[in-house]
Amino acid sequence: MSQYDGGLAGVYPEEEDDRLADLAGDSDYEDDEYVQSISKASEDTSAMDVLKGKDIQGIPWERLTITRDGYRKSRLEGYANFENIPNSGQLSEKLCTPVEKGQLYYEFAHNTRSVRPTIFHFQLRNLVWATTRHDVYLMSHMSVLHWSPLTSEKHEVIDLQGHVAPCVVQIPLPSV
Questions:
Q1: Which domain of life is it from (predicted)?
Q2: pTM
């Protein structure tokens, strides 16, 4: 949380709305308490919610027995980042401009929990594609879905249910 201009840098209020997330309670975090607490949450997170103190990811820290800082500390101590290419992080450190603490690097507007991929993997970034700032594609229930952050609507683009016989034909889906 930045103290830029006395508020949260990168967080701009948007109109409050009544969109409800379709939470199934699933998460890649295995703690039962977390899953139960998050499944009780029913709202998306807007910039206005964040300005009022809500967690940007919608995690109800006040209902958990661990604090956000405590969880972050234990995760940093116990989690080893996976690398497909050994030492690839060292190369990116040389190529990237170092970030300065307290600077504005993104503008948060909205976080939804209503659109979820149904294939879970530790490299989730490979299962969700944001081809433009207004188009997000993901796999969900044997379909490729398009979600628009402008309208908060999702539409099926490709239905793969019953059309693919894995032993006979494989249809490669290019990463977008």
A1: Eukaryota
A2: 0.51
* CA-to-CA separations, 65 to 24, 90, 104, 134, 157, in angstroms, rounded: 22, 36, 31, 37, 41
> With b meaning 16 or more CB within 10 Å and e meaning fewer, what string describes 96-133?
eeeeeeeeeeeebebbbbebbeeeeeeeeeebeeeeee
pLDDT in tens, 91-140: 777 777 777 888 887 788 888 888 888 877 766 666 788 899 889 998 88
Helices (H), 59-126: 68-78, 88-95
- Could you tell me the maximum CA-CA distance found in the chain, to the nearest angstrom? 61
Place of tokens 């800082």: 69
Q: What share of the chain is helix, strand, coil (3-state, %, to 5)?
A: 25, 20, 60
Q: Who's near 124: CB < 8 A, 6+ residues apart? A: 28, 117
Q: In the chain, where are the structural domains located?
A: 1-114, 115-176
List the structure tokens of 45. 């997170």
